[in-house]
């Protein structure tokens, strides 16, 4: 399917580049040592501008989710119903994703999931999650 | 310095929500409600010296505040746009009071006017997203629907809130709407079963738990309290106000089942010197049923996590123990863009004036109004009173 990707920004370039190698990396603030997601040019915890990128385990849990039955973006019509979720990585940060490779009705909060990397039509890769 | 008692709402003008606005225009609707609000207040357009306008959420014109002021014929000492989504209306009222208190102006028109155009909305939706939506959009979120659905899902998981408890909010508000001829769903009572049998749109939320976008407008005139007694209608005083936000996208909320109303209501009550128990009614932004439950909890009307049983046991209609959204709320009255948020202000004003007829809450003296923007993001809370208690 053709997902709607948005332009990559200077702050997000490493994130998307690592995904192309099937790896999930997140910036950690050099000053307060907190992981920051989404990647940006300033630390939202301490306003520092310096980060070091770190590889994530790809393991996490479902923090919350919903089953989308009437998508309003036409690109997703063929995929519905599908699970849109917030994943909490074991490293502590949360991100949006989809849970795939299972029935929407089998997804639950607290479920263990792991990252999978999916290539799309335009060659860009995206991190999704499946039951671990 | 506090805003307590410094300003009053002296005029309201509103259009009933419209599913089909025909040939109406944004400025045309703004004209209608401005005229109504001026008549209500017994003021002339030349008495207005400040304008706070809500953005045109579809067309996004440049320097909109100035365009609105010019069109209406207002020579302004203060003009601005308040762009906080659903929180805009209540946020305007305290900003108006603050500008008045600071001496920048004395009488402010707070204006919301929005035409709903579904094709136009979807066409402009993606181009208007922040670049930071790059981490969400490829996963196919469903705007506010998927955000509030995830809030509801986690609330159910943590606290055992049930679909029937969520549905009760929609049912009580529909009862209220059936006593308000201006409500879109007046004359169409519903039961909990009706809600639960309506299609699941975005789990766990059903169609009847989700607002219906439409077109409409509302204007509110805020003036200095010293000027209020000279106005035609009974003034309603601002006793407290608070505002807070912790996130824009719900993905990055510190805790998705806790609303920033926790801080905004706390600040509003502190300013007013009042508590939740003092309120005779509440007017809570209700884009979804879950929004009302979380707002009741975090504003302090029940304990955290007890919102489900609380709404199940509490009659939220105008006849009940805690009247909530007596106009029907946006779920049953309609969501005419940002005027939907303003409906929570105008209904509280009508109740405190005692002019609600059939749905009048007996001896309503104090009301809490909360407006909620984004995905439980910006919160603006007001405490309004019939007098400065
Ligand atoms: Zn930092």
Descriptive report:
- The complex is a heterodimer of chains A (132) and B (389).
- By secondary structure, chain A is mostly beta strands.
- Chain A folds into two domains: 11-55; 57-132, OB fold (Dihydrolipoamide Acetyltransferase, E2P) (Beta Barrel).
- Chain A contains one helix and seven strands.
- Chain A has one helix spanning 13-20, and strands spanning 25-29, 51-55, 59-68, 82-89, 94-99, 112-119, 125-131.
- Chain A has a five-stranded antiparallel sheet. In chain A, strands 1-2 form a two-stranded antiparallel ribbon.
- Chain A is globular.
- The two termini of chain A are 24 Å apart.
- Chain B is of the alpha/beta class.
- Chain B folds into two domains: 7-121 and 214-237, Thiolase/Chalcone synthase (Peroxisomal Thiolase, Chain A, domain 1), CATH 3.40.47.10; 143-210 and 240-385, Thiolase/Chalcone synthase (Peroxisomal Thiolase, Chain A, domain 1, 3-Layer(aba) Sandwich).
- In chain B, 35% of the residues lie in helices and 17% in strands.
- Chain B has helices spanning 26-41, 64-72, 88-101, 118-125, 143-159, 163-177, 192-197, 261-272, 289-298, 307-313, 329-333, 338-353; strands spanning 7-14, 50-53, 78-81, 107-114, 200-202, 205-206, 216-224, 236-244, 281-284, 366-372, 379-385.
- In chain B, helix 2 links the parallel strand 2 and strand 3 (78-81).
- Chain B is globular.
- The two termini of chain B are 17 Å apart.
- The interface between A and B is large, with 38 and 34 residues.
- Bound molecules: zinc ion.
- Zinc ion binds at residues 29, 31-32, 34, 43, 45-46, 48 of chain A.
């Amino acid at each position: 399917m053709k997902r709607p990707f948005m332009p990559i920004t200077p702050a997000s370039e490493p994130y998307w580049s690592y995904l192309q190698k099937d790896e999930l990396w997140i910036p950690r603030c050099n000053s307060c040592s907190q992981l920051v997601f989404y990647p940006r040019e300033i630390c939202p915890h301490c306003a520092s501008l310096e980060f070091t990128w770190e590889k994530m385990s790809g393991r996490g849990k479902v923090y919350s989710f919903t089953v989308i039955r009437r998508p309003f973006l036409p690109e997703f019509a063929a995929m519905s119903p599908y699970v849109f979720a917030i994943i909490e990585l074991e490293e502590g940060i949360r991100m949006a994703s989809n849970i795939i490779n299972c029935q929407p009705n089998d997804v639950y909060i607290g479920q263990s999931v792991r990252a999978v990397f999916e290539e799309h039509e335009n060659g860009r890769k995206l991190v999704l999650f499946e039951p671990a | 310095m506090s805003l307590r008692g410094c300003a009053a709402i002296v005029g309201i003008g509103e259009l009933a929500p419209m599913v089909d606005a025909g040939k109406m225009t944004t400025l045309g609707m703004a004209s209608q409600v401005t005229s109504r609000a001026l008549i209500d207040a017994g003021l002339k357009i030349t008495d207005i010296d400040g304008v706070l306008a809500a953005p045109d959420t579809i067309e996004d014109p440049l320097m909109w505040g100035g365009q609105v002021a010019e069109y209406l014929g207002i020579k302004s000492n203060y003009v601005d746009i308040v762009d906080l989504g659903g929180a805009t209306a209540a946020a305007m009222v305290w900003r108006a009071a603050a500008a008045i208190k600071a001496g920048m102006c004395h009488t402010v028109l707070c204006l919301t006017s929005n035409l709903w155009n579904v094709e136009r909305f979807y066409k402009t939706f993606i181009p208007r997203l922040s670049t930071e939506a790059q981490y969400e959009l490829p996963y196919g979120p469903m705007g506010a629907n998927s955000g509030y659905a995830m809030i509801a899902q986690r609330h159910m998981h943590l606290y055992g809130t049930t679909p029937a408890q969520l549905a009760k909010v929609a049912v009580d508000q529909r009862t209220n709407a059936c006593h308000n001829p201006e409500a879109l769903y007046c004359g169409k009572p519903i039961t909990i079963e009706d809600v639960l049998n309506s299609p699941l749109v975005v789990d766990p939320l059903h169609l009847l738990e989700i607002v219906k976008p439409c077109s409409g407008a509302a204007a509110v005139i805020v003036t200095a309290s010293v000027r209020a007694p000279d106005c035609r209608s009974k003034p309603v005083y601002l006793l407290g106000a608070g505002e807070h936000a912790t996130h824009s996208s719900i993905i990055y909320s510190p805790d998705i089942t806790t609303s920033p109303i926790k801080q905004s209501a706390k600040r509003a009550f502190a300013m007013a010197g009042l508590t939740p128990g003092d309120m005779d009614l509440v007017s809570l932004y209700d884009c979804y049923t879950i929004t009302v439950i979380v707002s009741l909890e975090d504003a302090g009307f029940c304990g955290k996590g007890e919102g489900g049983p609380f709404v199940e046991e509490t009659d939220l209609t105008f006849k009940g123990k805690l009247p909530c959204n007596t106009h029907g709320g946006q779920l049953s009255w309609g969501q005419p863009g940002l005027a939907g948020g303003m409906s929570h202000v105008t209904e509280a004003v009508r109740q405190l004036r005692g002019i609600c007829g059939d749905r009048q809450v007996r001896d309503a003296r104090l009301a809490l109004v909360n407006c909620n923007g984004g995905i439980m993001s910006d919160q603006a809370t007001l405490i309004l009173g019939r007098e400065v208690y």
